[in-house]
Amino acid sequence: MTSRIAVCPGSFDPVTLGHLDIVRRALSLFDEVVVAVGSNAAKSQLLDARVRTDLFASAVADLAGVRVVQMPGLLADLCRELGASAIVKGLRGGADFDAEQPMALMNRHLAGVETVFVTGDPALSHISSSMVRDVARYGGDICDLVPEHVADAVHRAFGPPAPTEGSR
Ligand code: PNS
User: Fold this and answer.
1) Which of 21, 39, 126, 128 sits a CA distance of 20 to 30 A from 119?
2) What pLDDT is recorded for position 159?
């Protein structure tokens, strides 16, 4: 029997506990999950693609059936190369669906691949990579939002927090 592969794509800048929740859910539905770390042309990135890929790979090192690859080109091409059965994306709410639906339609147009939308743990629905970056930028605590090694890397990328008014 051929194994059914799901691709979980994203920019993962950085990977959060919400992303890991979706990968685990995808793994419960498919035999293998390939996390594809790409770059969203509409977003500027804090961490470079290699670092984002390595951080995700360390975060799922204990999960059999998951591998992490860098995606330099089109998601549709990667899905074709892998013979993927589906793309899996997490939805936190309606805004996510509005952003994801055009991409799902385009990927089906390009590669005939379906996108499966999965709702994540509501306890994690406030977490996004952009919020994590914003909290970390001002020296806030991101320990409950991302794995520990990711928090270290994000804080390193920003450097020490700037002194606040009154602390100089
Ligand atoms: O986490 P994001 O930023 O929503 O991820 C978006 C990503 C990287 C999955 C998307 O931009 C993508 O698939 N990029 C690869 C290039 C591509 O296939 N573009 C057409 C998308 S329909």
Assistant:
1) 39
2) 87
Residue 90 domain-assigned (yes or no): yes
Is residue 88 within 8 Å of 116, Cβ to Cβ?
Answer: yes
Asked if residue 129 has its Cβ within 6 Å of ligand 1, the reply is no
Q: Sheet harboring 5-10: ordered strands across? A: 66-70, 32-37, 5-10, 86-91, 114-119
- Residue 18 near ligand 1, beta carbon < 6 Å: no
The total of structural domains in the chain comes to: 1
CB atoms within 10 A of CB 5: 18
Nearest protein CA to atom 5 of ligand 1, as residue: 10
Q: For residue 36, is it within any domain?
A: yes
Q: Give me the pLDDT at residue 165, please.
A: 65
Q: How far is the CA of 149 from the centre of ligand 1 (A)?
A: 25
Residue 90: CB within 6 Å of ligand 1?
no
Query: Does ligand 1 lie within 6 Å of residue 43's CB atom?
Result: yes
- 57, part of any domain: yes
Q: Quick check: is 60 in a domain?
A: yes
Q: What is the mean pLDDT of residues 74-85?
A: 98
Backbone angles phi, psi at 21, to 5 degrees: -60, -40
Closest ligand 1 atom to 9 CA: 9
Query: Domain of 53?
Result: 5-125
Instruction: Assign residue 96 the CATH number of its domain.
Output: 3.40.50.620
pLDDT in tens, 131-142: 999 999 999 999
